[in-house]
TrEMBL record:
Presence of the UniProt keyword Transport in the record: no
Lineage per the UniProt record: Eukaryota, Metazoa, Chordata, Craniata, Vertebrata
Protein name: Transmembrane protein 120A
InterPro entries on file: TMEM120A/B (IPR012926)
Family: Belongs to the TMEM120 family.
Localisation per UniProt entry: Nucleus inner membrane
Transmembrane segments: 134-155, 191-209, 265-283, 303-327
Cellular component per GO, a single term: nuclear inner membrane
Organism in which the protein naturally occurs: Lates calcarifer (Barramundi)
PANTHER family recorded: TRANSMEMBRANE PROTEIN 120A, TRANSMEMBRANE PROTEIN INDUCED BY TUMOR NECROSIS FACTOR ALPHA
Length: 344
Protein backbone atom coordinates (compact mmCIF):
# COMPACT_ATOMS: atom_id res chain seq x y z
CA UNK A 1 0.00 0.00 0.00
CA UNK A 2 1.33 3.42 -0.99
CA UNK A 3 -0.99 5.35 1.38
CA UNK A 4 -2.67 6.98 -1.60
CA UNK A 5 -6.39 7.82 -1.03
CA UNK A 6 -8.90 6.68 -3.64
CA UNK A 7 -10.29 9.48 -5.88
CA UNK A 8 -13.88 9.02 -4.61
CA UNK A 9 -12.81 9.48 -0.98
CA UNK A 10 -10.88 12.70 -1.82
CA UNK A 11 -14.08 14.11 -3.39
CA UNK A 12 -16.06 13.19 -0.26
CA UNK A 13 -13.50 14.96 1.98
CA UNK A 14 -13.56 18.07 -0.20
CA UNK A 15 -17.35 18.10 -0.19
CA UNK A 16 -17.39 17.69 3.62
CA UNK A 17 -14.88 20.56 4.04
CA UNK A 18 -17.07 22.75 1.83
CA UNK A 19 -20.17 21.79 3.84
CA UNK A 20 -18.32 22.47 7.12
CA UNK A 21 -17.37 25.99 5.96
CA UNK A 22 -20.95 26.69 4.83
CA UNK A 23 -22.27 25.39 8.17
CA UNK A 24 -19.99 27.81 10.07
CA UNK A 25 -21.30 30.63 7.86
CA UNK A 26 -24.89 29.53 8.48
CA UNK A 27 -24.32 29.54 12.26
CA UNK A 28 -22.94 33.08 12.10
CA UNK A 29 -25.85 34.24 9.92
CA UNK A 30 -28.38 32.59 12.24
CA UNK A 31 -26.75 34.17 15.30
CA UNK A 32 -26.98 37.57 13.59
CA UNK A 33 -30.62 36.85 12.65
CA UNK A 34 -31.52 36.09 16.29
CA UNK A 35 -29.72 39.27 17.37
CA UNK A 36 -31.70 41.31 14.83
CA UNK A 37 -34.95 39.67 15.98
CA UNK A 38 -34.13 40.75 19.50
CA UNK A 39 -33.44 44.29 18.27
CA UNK A 40 -36.71 44.30 16.28
CA UNK A 41 -38.64 43.12 19.34
CA UNK A 42 -37.16 46.00 21.40
CA UNK A 43 -38.00 48.51 18.64
CA UNK A 44 -41.57 47.17 18.43
CA UNK A 45 -42.06 47.57 22.19
CA UNK A 46 -40.52 51.03 22.01
CA UNK A 47 -42.88 52.11 19.18
CA UNK A 48 -45.97 50.62 20.88
CA UNK A 49 -45.27 52.38 24.19
CA UNK A 50 -44.48 55.67 22.38
CA UNK A 51 -47.79 55.49 20.48
CA UNK A 52 -49.71 54.82 23.73
CA UNK A 53 -47.93 57.73 25.43
CA UNK A 54 -48.63 60.06 22.48
CA UNK A 55 -52.31 59.10 22.43
CA UNK A 56 -52.67 59.69 26.17
CA UNK A 57 -50.90 63.06 26.06
CA UNK A 58 -52.87 64.22 23.00
CA UNK A 59 -56.09 63.36 24.83
CA UNK A 60 -54.97 65.39 27.86
CA UNK A 61 -53.91 68.27 25.60
CA UNK A 62 -57.27 68.41 23.80
CA UNK A 63 -59.06 68.56 27.21
CA UNK A 64 -56.81 71.40 28.34
CA UNK A 65 -57.39 73.64 25.31
CA UNK A 66 -61.19 73.33 25.39
CA UNK A 67 -63.13 76.54 26.04
CA UNK A 68 -60.03 78.69 26.48
CA UNK A 69 -60.39 82.34 25.49
CA UNK A 70 -57.44 83.26 23.27
CA UNK A 71 -56.24 86.25 21.30
CA UNK A 72 -56.69 86.18 17.53
CA UNK A 73 -53.06 85.20 16.87
CA UNK A 74 -53.11 82.45 19.51
CA UNK A 75 -56.44 81.19 18.20
CA UNK A 76 -54.90 80.89 14.73
CA UNK A 77 -51.98 78.87 16.15
CA UNK A 78 -54.42 76.73 18.11
CA UNK A 79 -56.41 75.96 14.92
CA UNK A 80 -53.19 74.86 13.23
CA UNK A 81 -52.40 72.54 16.15
CA UNK A 82 -55.96 71.14 16.09
CA UNK A 83 -55.64 70.38 12.36
CA UNK A 84 -52.39 68.51 12.99
CA UNK A 85 -53.91 66.63 15.93
CA UNK A 86 -56.74 65.43 13.65
CA UNK A 87 -54.24 63.67 11.36
CA UNK A 88 -52.54 61.80 14.21
CA UNK A 89 -55.08 58.94 14.77
CA UNK A 90 -54.72 57.95 11.11
CA UNK A 91 -50.91 58.04 11.34
CA UNK A 92 -51.00 55.92 14.52
CA UNK A 93 -53.36 53.45 12.82
CA UNK A 94 -50.91 53.05 9.92
CA UNK A 95 -48.01 52.54 12.36
CA UNK A 96 -49.89 50.02 14.51
CA UNK A 97 -50.65 47.88 11.45
CA UNK A 98 -46.96 46.86 11.48
CA UNK A 99 -46.68 46.32 15.24
CA UNK A 100 -47.66 43.17 17.18
CA UNK A 101 -50.82 43.62 19.23
CA UNK A 102 -53.02 41.57 21.51
CA UNK A 103 -55.76 39.67 19.71
CA UNK A 104 -59.37 40.73 20.22
CA UNK A 105 -61.82 38.49 22.07
CA UNK A 106 -62.91 36.53 18.97
CA UNK A 107 -59.38 35.76 17.71
CA UNK A 108 -58.25 34.89 21.24
CA UNK A 109 -61.09 32.37 21.54
CA UNK A 110 -60.37 30.83 18.13
CA UNK A 111 -56.57 31.02 17.85
CA UNK A 112 -55.35 31.73 21.36
CA UNK A 113 -52.69 34.35 21.94
CA UNK A 114 -50.77 33.81 18.68
CA UNK A 115 -49.46 36.94 16.96
CA UNK A 116 -51.27 37.43 13.63
CA UNK A 117 -49.61 40.69 12.55
CA UNK A 118 -47.81 40.38 9.20
CA UNK A 119 -44.75 42.60 9.14
CA UNK A 120 -44.29 43.38 5.43
CA UNK A 121 -46.57 45.11 2.93
CA UNK A 122 -46.06 42.22 0.49
CA UNK A 123 -47.21 39.55 2.98
CA UNK A 124 -50.21 41.67 4.03
CA UNK A 125 -51.26 42.14 0.42
CA UNK A 126 -50.65 38.45 -0.38
CA UNK A 127 -52.90 37.44 2.54
CA UNK A 128 -55.57 39.89 1.43
CA UNK A 129 -55.34 38.58 -2.14
CA UNK A 130 -55.66 35.01 -0.90
CA UNK A 131 -58.76 36.03 1.11
CA UNK A 132 -60.39 37.38 -2.07
CA UNK A 133 -59.58 34.18 -4.00
CA UNK A 134 -60.94 32.04 -1.17
CA UNK A 135 -64.14 34.08 -1.15
CA UNK A 136 -64.66 33.77 -4.91
CA UNK A 137 -63.87 30.02 -5.08
CA UNK A 138 -66.09 29.23 -2.08
CA UNK A 139 -68.95 31.28 -3.55
CA UNK A 140 -68.70 29.43 -6.88
CA UNK A 141 -68.79 26.06 -5.04
CA UNK A 142 -71.84 27.21 -2.99
CA UNK A 143 -73.53 28.43 -6.19
CA UNK A 144 -73.07 25.02 -7.88
CA UNK A 145 -74.17 23.10 -4.78
CA UNK A 146 -77.31 25.26 -4.33
CA UNK A 147 -78.08 24.76 -8.04
CA UNK A 148 -77.81 20.95 -7.72
CA UNK A 149 -79.95 20.85 -4.54
CA UNK A 150 -82.62 23.13 -6.06
CA UNK A 151 -82.98 21.56 -9.50
CA UNK A 152 -81.83 17.94 -9.31
CA UNK A 153 -81.86 16.31 -5.86
CA UNK A 154 -84.08 16.57 -2.81
CA UNK A 155 -82.25 14.85 0.06
CA UNK A 156 -82.15 16.37 3.55
CA UNK A 157 -78.62 14.91 3.83
CA UNK A 158 -77.37 17.05 0.89
CA UNK A 159 -79.16 20.12 2.26
CA UNK A 160 -77.28 19.53 5.53
CA UNK A 161 -73.96 19.42 3.63
CA UNK A 162 -74.85 22.74 1.94
CA UNK A 163 -75.68 24.34 5.30
CA UNK A 164 -72.52 22.92 6.85
CA UNK A 165 -70.54 24.45 3.96
CA UNK A 166 -72.23 27.79 4.67
CA UNK A 167 -71.39 27.59 8.41
CA UNK A 168 -67.76 26.73 7.61
CA UNK A 169 -67.54 29.46 4.94
CA UNK A 170 -68.89 32.26 7.16
CA UNK A 171 -66.86 31.17 10.21
CA UNK A 172 -63.69 31.10 8.09
CA UNK A 173 -64.53 34.56 6.69
CA UNK A 174 -64.93 36.02 10.18
CA UNK A 175 -61.52 34.62 11.26
CA UNK A 176 -59.75 35.85 8.13
CA UNK A 177 -61.41 39.28 8.39
CA UNK A 178 -60.35 39.61 12.03
CA UNK A 179 -56.75 38.87 10.98
CA UNK A 180 -57.01 41.44 8.15
CA UNK A 181 -58.42 44.06 10.56
CA UNK A 182 -55.43 43.42 12.87
CA UNK A 183 -53.19 44.04 9.85
CA UNK A 184 -54.76 47.40 8.99
CA UNK A 185 -57.80 46.59 6.83
CA UNK A 186 -60.59 49.11 7.29
CA UNK A 187 -63.66 46.88 7.03
CA UNK A 188 -66.86 48.65 8.06
CA UNK A 189 -68.61 47.24 11.13
CA UNK A 190 -71.82 45.88 9.63
CA UNK A 191 -70.14 44.07 6.72
CA UNK A 192 -68.15 42.04 9.26
CA UNK A 193 -70.96 41.60 11.79
CA UNK A 194 -73.43 40.24 9.23
CA UNK A 195 -71.08 37.29 8.62
CA UNK A 196 -71.50 36.26 12.27
CA UNK A 197 -75.30 36.39 11.86
CA UNK A 198 -75.11 34.46 8.56
CA UNK A 199 -72.96 31.77 10.25
CA UNK A 200 -75.49 31.50 13.10
CA UNK A 201 -78.43 31.39 10.65
CA UNK A 202 -76.76 28.58 8.63
CA UNK A 203 -76.13 26.70 11.88
CA UNK A 204 -79.81 26.96 12.84
CA UNK A 205 -80.85 25.81 9.33
CA UNK A 206 -78.50 22.84 9.73
CA UNK A 207 -80.29 21.71 12.91
CA UNK A 208 -83.83 22.18 11.51
CA UNK A 209 -85.31 18.63 11.47
CA UNK A 210 -86.77 17.24 8.26
CA UNK A 211 -90.53 17.69 8.38
CA UNK A 212 -93.49 19.35 6.77
CA UNK A 213 -92.45 22.93 7.57
CA UNK A 214 -88.87 22.35 6.44
CA UNK A 215 -90.14 21.02 3.10
CA UNK A 216 -92.37 24.11 2.66
CA UNK A 217 -89.44 26.52 3.21
CA UNK A 218 -86.70 24.41 1.54
CA UNK A 219 -87.11 25.57 -2.07
CA UNK A 220 -87.50 29.21 -1.09
CA UNK A 221 -84.27 29.02 0.94
CA UNK A 222 -82.35 27.20 -1.82
CA UNK A 223 -83.51 29.71 -4.44
CA UNK A 224 -82.39 32.52 -2.09
CA UNK A 225 -78.97 30.82 -1.55
CA UNK A 226 -78.59 30.44 -5.30
CA UNK A 227 -79.38 34.11 -5.89
CA UNK A 228 -77.10 35.27 -3.03
CA UNK A 229 -74.16 33.23 -4.37
CA UNK A 230 -74.75 34.62 -7.87
CA UNK A 231 -74.79 38.24 -6.59
CA UNK A 232 -71.69 37.59 -4.47
CA UNK A 233 -69.85 36.24 -7.54
CA UNK A 234 -70.85 39.38 -9.45
CA UNK A 235 -69.65 41.58 -6.60
CA UNK A 236 -66.35 39.76 -6.11
CA UNK A 237 -65.61 40.03 -9.82
CA UNK A 238 -66.57 43.70 -10.34
CA UNK A 239 -65.41 45.03 -6.95
CA UNK A 240 -61.93 43.51 -7.22
CA UNK A 241 -61.56 45.08 -10.68
CA UNK A 242 -62.72 48.45 -9.36
CA UNK A 243 -60.44 48.23 -6.28
CA UNK A 244 -57.49 47.35 -8.51
CA UNK A 245 -58.08 50.50 -10.60
CA UNK A 246 -58.57 52.74 -7.55
CA UNK A 247 -55.44 51.35 -5.86
CA UNK A 248 -53.44 52.02 -9.03
CA UNK A 249 -54.70 55.64 -8.91
CA UNK A 250 -53.76 55.86 -5.23
CA UNK A 251 -57.39 56.48 -4.20
CA UNK A 252 -57.79 53.33 -2.12
CA UNK A 253 -55.81 51.56 0.60
CA UNK A 254 -53.89 48.39 -0.36
CA UNK A 255 -55.86 46.31 2.14
CA UNK A 256 -59.38 47.40 1.15
CA UNK A 257 -61.62 44.38 0.64
CA UNK A 258 -64.61 43.38 -1.45
CA UNK A 259 -67.83 43.23 0.62
CA UNK A 260 -71.29 41.69 0.19
CA UNK A 261 -72.81 45.14 0.17
CA UNK A 262 -72.31 48.66 -1.11
CA UNK A 263 -69.63 51.11 0.02
CA UNK A 264 -68.93 54.69 -0.97
CA UNK A 265 -65.94 53.85 -3.23
CA UNK A 266 -68.25 51.75 -5.45
CA UNK A 267 -70.16 54.82 -6.55
CA UNK A 268 -67.90 55.21 -9.58
CA UNK A 269 -68.84 52.41 -11.93
CA UNK A 270 -70.64 49.92 -9.67
CA UNK A 271 -74.06 51.52 -9.15
CA UNK A 272 -75.53 48.93 -11.57
CA UNK A 273 -75.13 46.41 -8.69
CA UNK A 274 -77.60 48.32 -6.49
CA UNK A 275 -80.83 46.80 -7.96
CA UNK A 276 -79.37 43.28 -7.47
CA UNK A 277 -78.49 44.14 -3.87
CA UNK A 278 -81.86 45.67 -3.01
CA UNK A 279 -83.66 42.70 -4.54
CA UNK A 280 -81.57 40.41 -2.30
CA UNK A 281 -82.36 42.55 0.76
CA UNK A 282 -86.11 42.37 0.13
CA UNK A 283 -85.83 38.63 -0.41
CA UNK A 284 -84.39 38.45 3.12
CA UNK A 285 -87.45 40.37 4.36
CA UNK A 286 -89.74 38.03 2.39
CA UNK A 287 -87.99 35.00 3.98
CA UNK A 288 -88.41 36.55 7.40
CA UNK A 289 -92.14 37.26 6.94
CA UNK A 290 -92.74 33.76 5.49
CA UNK A 291 -91.10 32.19 8.54
CA UNK A 292 -93.00 34.41 11.01
CA UNK A 293 -96.24 33.38 9.28
CA UNK A 294 -95.14 29.74 9.46
CA UNK A 295 -94.41 30.09 13.20
CA UNK A 296 -98.12 30.90 13.78
CA UNK A 297 -99.29 27.59 12.30
CA UNK A 298 -100.74 25.21 14.92
CA UNK A 299 -98.44 22.33 13.90
CA UNK A 300 -95.26 24.47 14.23
CA UNK A 301 -93.21 22.87 17.01
CA UNK A 302 -89.68 23.73 15.79
CA UNK A 303 -87.89 26.66 17.46
CA UNK A 304 -85.76 26.99 14.29
CA UNK A 305 -88.65 28.63 12.39
CA UNK A 306 -88.84 31.70 14.64
CA UNK A 307 -85.05 31.91 15.08
CA UNK A 308 -84.39 31.84 11.29
CA UNK A 309 -87.15 34.44 10.80
CA UNK A 310 -85.45 36.71 13.32
CA UNK A 311 -82.00 36.25 11.68
CA UNK A 312 -83.38 37.09 8.24
CA UNK A 313 -85.08 40.19 9.65
CA UNK A 314 -81.81 41.38 11.27
CA UNK A 315 -79.94 40.74 8.01
CA UNK A 316 -82.53 42.67 6.00
CA UNK A 317 -82.51 45.67 8.36
CA UNK A 318 -78.71 45.83 8.61
CA UNK A 319 -78.08 45.39 4.89
CA UNK A 320 -80.90 47.65 3.72
CA UNK A 321 -80.29 50.57 6.10
CA UNK A 322 -76.49 50.45 5.70
CA UNK A 323 -76.81 50.52 1.90
CA UNK A 324 -79.43 53.32 1.99
CA UNK A 325 -77.18 55.35 4.33
CA UNK A 326 -74.23 55.02 1.91
CA UNK A 327 -76.38 56.03 -1.09
CA UNK A 328 -77.90 58.99 0.79
CA UNK A 329 -74.49 60.21 1.92
CA UNK A 330 -73.15 59.96 -1.64
CA UNK A 331 -76.11 61.84 -3.15
CA UNK A 332 -75.81 64.51 -0.44
CA UNK A 333 -72.08 65.07 -1.12
CA UNK A 334 -72.81 65.05 -4.86
CA UNK A 335 -75.41 67.79 -4.45
CA UNK A 336 -73.07 69.86 -2.28
CA UNK A 337 -70.26 69.83 -4.87
CA UNK A 338 -72.15 71.75 -7.60
CA UNK A 339 -73.26 74.33 -4.99
CA UNK A 340 -69.69 74.97 -3.87
CA UNK A 341 -68.63 75.26 -7.52
CA UNK A 342 -71.39 77.80 -8.18
CA UNK A 343 -70.29 79.84 -5.17
CA UNK A 344 -66.77 79.97 -6.57
Amino acid sequence: STGKMPQGFTDVLEEWKCLEDEYQQLQDTHRMYLQKLDEISKLQNNCSSSISRQQRRLKELSHRVKNKSLSEEDAKKMDEIKEKVKTRPNAFFEMEAFLPKKNGLYLSLVLGNVNVTLFSKQSKFAYKDEYEKFKLCSTVVLLLFSFICYFFVSYRFLDAILNFQLVWYYCTLTIRESILITNGSRIKGWWVFHHYISAFLSGVMLTWPDGNLYKIFRNQFLAYSLYQSFVQCLQCYYQSGCLYRLRALGERHNLDLTVEGFQSWMWKGLTFLLPFLFFGHFWQLFNSLSLFKMAQLPDCKEWQVLMCGLCFLILFMGNFFTTVAVVRQKLKSRNQKPKSLKEQ
